[in-house]
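User: Round two. Same drill as before: sequence, then structure, for each protein.

Assistant: Same drill it is. First protein:
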Amino acid sequence: MPLRHRPEPIDRCRQGVSSCALVLALLPPLACAASASKALAGEAQAADEALGGASDYRQFGGIEITGSAILNPRSREALPVTVLSRRDIELSGARNLAELLHGQSVMLGFGESGGLNWSGLGGQVSAAIHGYEAGTLVLLNGQRLAPFPAQRVDKDVSLAEISQIPLNAVERIDILVDGASARYGSDAIAGVVNIITRHHTRQADISVHHTQADGRGGAMSDVQFSWGRGRLESEGQAFQIHASVSEHAMQLARDRRATDTAPQLVGTDAQGQAQYVLPFSLPGPSIAPGSACPEAYFPSPPTIPVEATRACRYDLSQWLSVYPSEQRRSLFASYERALNKDHVVFIDQLLHQEAQAFKVGAPWAAHGFNWAAWAPAMLPTGSPERTRDKSNWRSNLGLRGQWAGTEYRLGLVLGQASMEERAWQPDLSTLPSSPPATAAPLQAQGLALDRSSTQLAALQAQLSGQWADWPAGTPRWGAGWSVQQERHQYRNLARNAIADDAVDVQRQQWAVFSELNLPLRERTEANVSFRFDDLGISGNAWTGKVGLKQRVGLKGFLRGSLGTGFRAPSPMQSLPLAWTTLSRIDPVNCAANPGSVCSRYVAVGNPALQAERSRQFWLGYHNEPSPRWSFGVDYWRFTVSDIFGALSRDDILNNPEFKALYYQESSPGVPAQYTGLNQNLGQLQRSGLDYRLQHRLPTDWGRVRVSLHGTRYLHAQRSTYPGRPAVSELGQYLDQTQSFIPKNQLNLTASLERDQHAYSLVFRHITGHSETAMLLLNHEESRYPVRRYVNSNWRIDFNGRYQASSKLTWLFGVDNLLDRDPSPTYQHPNAGSLPVADTRYGDYRGRRLKVGLKLGI
């Protein structure tokens, strides 16, 4: 039978409720659930008065502002917060949170569903403000989510996945592009993404969307359902539920011309020799002069004269998945009830399940197997896969209100993220004695690789109030404390394990924080905040921040801040654990050739590992000279010291001091070993300008809006191990970090809204970069480093909506309207297997048609 993704049953006591019973299993417990209201009191009261009824319940005067401990809506303009409202979300044409957030100009180099597919390490979806994913904190209603389950000793992946939250449950998204460790603690170095869910839903509606790619693979379909009853402000209680089901078809490298991995001529060298890039391939038969290679093979290398005898090679890269297949099911439900006019109890519940399948280039374990001879018969009918089955849940229970003139919020968050990985590959024991002449379906077998989970429990209290009026205004204060516990579990299920069998670690920490907003003069106010964190095994951290806002003219203001931050290592990195993450041990050839095929990389945790420390500065000016025009520019800079990580194999081999400490030579039967000790390696520095310009113009055709949002990076450099000078990554790919920072990134949007119609065009642009790639230069198959420039990427997206009636809205659009391909790049984490594509910086899906409808019930 064809090889395909067929996940076997998982231990649901560990992994969560089965997807087929996801909704039904939740309805009974959610009948008594509750969630925090997120609406501004003034807006809610105005809405009630418009309906002709007065509110029977107190409207609390403030909401939590992202980055501030003070419940005061006025604080928003003092912080560099970009707010994506529900209207912005609906007009964007985005089908999920990943599409919405990754389309913002401040996001760069984020984790997404492509990534390292060949090794099966891609698939986690996150956010990265100014290209610093590890320093971007993602929150749901101001509270943390359980980190990604596949924690590692050698690499920090303690990010929160945004794919688990259904987009139809979101009211707004706050993107704070300034350090906020003084408010939230660890990870908030580059900024914060706070996802705020809807505060009430008055009716039921269902949305159906389909995205069809202009080519094979990559189709997407999703169904979203929302239902609610009640309104807290007028009825004293509110209940709502939002569900989302989506499926994404796999896209292979051979499905798009942008990821075509055939040998590509990229230029000539100084001697006139052709420069080629060669795909991940296997040797095949030799052919006589003047003959052609068999179907699905290519001559290697292409520069050999036609009269010479030459070998053929089989292209494995064409069967790799650029984007995996995905099936997602998410449910968010909330309930809130007013106990009296001063106190509200709330609870919300999030459930998410996801299955991903990646096509990989070769069987996960095939030592001694002639893969080169069998690949042409196997891959067309079903190449090997790696699959991930994820299960996430989160509960938030709390009480908020007003007591003795002080607003308060108490909350308890419990959550878990689980994942099981499997390898699906041909059953080698069932193969015939020799490869068949034509491709034929093969029997598949599944191999459980590992099971991992992270658990989070957090309790937080927050108070906010005001003092007696000063001559310049009313001082406001905020304070709070939090207690948090994390637990990380990992178990290797593979028989030929290359990592420790089982790991179970946990960490407890607590913190106190406070903030003071003080009017200095009529048009000037200052903000001071500090926080203390006890990180347990990672020590403690004091962080602080000072901000100032000065009004200039009628509608202008100058604002800025100076502060410190930190990022704590994960428990996996901080404990004395040894983890074999990469093994090149062939039991057949190890004894005969120990130096070439017998080596392993062992990552080691370090109890002495210190937290990363940061300093950030930010200064901005914003103005609205007329109701039609507004503009703003913010200068930002952050410096991170004591960056932690493990030395790579190349770093160890190329430095005599490190080689003496962390490398052990091989001997017959004993593999060579690289020891990657987690340590504080160096420093990272980045700075730039975020700018925006917006023009609003009423016309006879409707309301026209033109906006420009962009980031100009001024400085980006980092050192990758102790004592090494900082190396620039601005406009150039840095091999040690496998990343780059472009000089410019911008979005130019033009929209038209009239009556029931709305249309928008978005021009997205990211500048190119230089890279040093290992290219195939000549017929001797020699590889040399070649310095080349990767051109800029740009595309245009179109979105529209038509409200046919009060109950029916049609949605339509085209992503990548002109079918622009990203420029080929040959230096990135996956270059060895899929040489032309880096999905972190380019969209390789091609042109896509989007259609949908929203029906009110």
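Second protein:
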Amino acid sequence: MLHYILQTIAFQVFFLIIYDVFLKNETFFNWNRAYLIGTAFLSFILPFLKFESIKAMVPEPMVVRLPEVIIGDVSPTFDSPVLVIGSQQITEQAASFSWTYVWIVGMVLAALILAYKIIMIGRMLYKNPQRWQGDALIVFLLNSSAAFSFFHYIFLGTDLSAEKKEHILQHEMVHVKEKHSWDLLVFEILRIVFWFNPFIYMYQTRLSNLHEFIADAKAVKYKGKSAYYQSLLSQVFETHQVSFINPFFKQSLTRLNVFGKQFTFHNGQVKKRILMLSKSKSKQIHLIKYALLVPMVMGMLMYTSSYASEIRDPFPVFQNEALNQELTFQELVDKYYNEILELARNGNQSKIIHDYGSESEKYIKSMDEVARRKAYDKYHAELFVEQAKKEGTYNDREKTFVNKVLNQYNTYEAYLAHQKTDEAISNWESGTMGGVLRLAVKDMKNFTVAEQKRYDKKMDMIKNDDFFHTLIITDGKITTSLDFGKKEKEEKTESFESYDVEVPYAVIDQPPLFDGCEASGSKDHDKRCTSDNIAQFVNKNFNVAIAEELNLKGRQRINVIFKIGEDGKVRNVMARAPHPALEAEAVRVIQSMPNFTPGKQKGKTVTVPYSLPILFQVKDDAPDTSKENTDQSEQDYLKALQSKEQNKIVDETEIPYAVVDEVPIFPSCQGLSSNKERKQCTSDKIASFVNKNFNAKLAKEVGLTGRQRMTVIFKIGTDGTISNIRARANHPELEKELIRVIEALPKMQAGKQNGEAVIVPYSLPVIFEVQ
């Protein structure tokens, strides 16, 4: 809500600056009226406008992870280390105060003031004589010199002279016909809801002035400017200060020189009105100023569509504190649960896992983080119940587990109390991986006997096992990390979460373009242009004389493989030739090629592998031109060979799960109709298979306790078999066991891209708990 209000105010500031600097002094009064009303409402609507076509311009990660596989009875403990600032631990009692109450009180007061004004006008209406004149009902105010209008009512004081009444009546009739009261009443309502926003008041003031300019411009035609000026200046009228009426005269002290005479009177608005009446009409060319609205609104749409919804507070402690002040713990859980349901309805499982299911590295987490995780656990618990009931496996054990998940941490205080228990400490200490050990203590400066024993045991593990290299110690307030410099080998290990997204040249949606080639809309034409230009570049720059110097004879064939990166640069060049010197020359030529326009798959730039065969004939042994293999046939042969190489590379390159046309399918899921159903079924079956076959007792045998988290990456090949399995866990024995289980997966139906079977990598997180 706060972010929305700030966006609205910012937009109104920009709109008002444009008005005051460029438009206010123009005589396009009706245009200005439309501008003020339109931009006021635009400022409230724009924060909600988020166009996918604009948002799609922001790159998103293309690596998709499968949902976690939970083995056995995993309680939803909220483990993880690192520094926790005390100000985050705000209790619900301390957070009971809410700015919402202040907002509501302000709205009530503003509504009461508006009601009082309406009652005041109503009393004037029913206490004074009236008569109709055209579409207006004239109310004669006894013993008064006031003059104003409200909707179709025109209030005229009986003390006004007949001549003044004529001018005033013409002026107020314009307000009635133009329905100016509706404009002001709408802003009165906005003032109730946004009573704290000063720019609403500024909008209303500028609009009220415009109403007077519009009425003056039409009323002055009745008897001419001179008489109208005299009517304005001759007397200070008694005016009722009501913000949503159109008074003929508003009070404020000012001085004005008119017709060579100095007038001192209580009316600043009269000066503006006379100055505006005396101005010549603006030239039509000045209407172009309103075009400034177009780039401004487009910029605001770019902001709201692409960036505003993604903004994060650079100081999350204060962000969480603000959330805690506005909502109780249970309200936060309900809020995040509803957000998860909305994401699930839209099929955005990856965002659910990323925003709500990921676990931080803190031992004591903030109320906001705990509420997110509880909402996530509630969502998956209900999915589990639904699936178990459908399969007929929902029994007392499952029911106990679900109740444990749903009823744990009903308040943030309960979570804080739980984190002090031995169970929570054990879970957090065992939840680490990658050679990092954890130790939770009550006081960093004074270890208990039990804490000292655990500390000594973990130090012995680091000393005696090269796998462990770091010890993190925390009491929830202060965290110390002891790094013993043994992780160089660990750091060289390939990251499990990063993939260079590669799409083969033969199946790419939009192939890379060689310098000088332009996208034509035809994939075949673009490929042909790139291939021809690469061939010409190599033909021009390759030094074939090297083969002669090496006394090589006959046809020489060199196979080159390289990649065109997401930035269009050529990298990872490898060559195979009859002699190392030819390989080196081929690598040199390919590396000297200019940058390409990168290839795209589903609108996103990707890395594209390219295979290039190079053929040439040593001159001394070149065939006679009368032979069947002419130069032209040689070129045709080379192109055919190159095309064959590009298609062959499909079998050697991975297609990311995020972009593959048809995902690999588990055997029992092949009968499903839609790709989405097969995808979900495959994910569920893999999870069930791992859950059934993984030996969770192994963790206890190697001395691990509490929650264990592992990650495994494997590939499903073009024949549906599993290969290239890599695992990461807290202990090498767990890694071996996870690899064993994945190797036992049945053969699947291969994933397909453009109808061709391709390799698809999978990333699978696995969680289980050692009791």
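The chain is about 45% helix and 15% strand.

User: Perfect.
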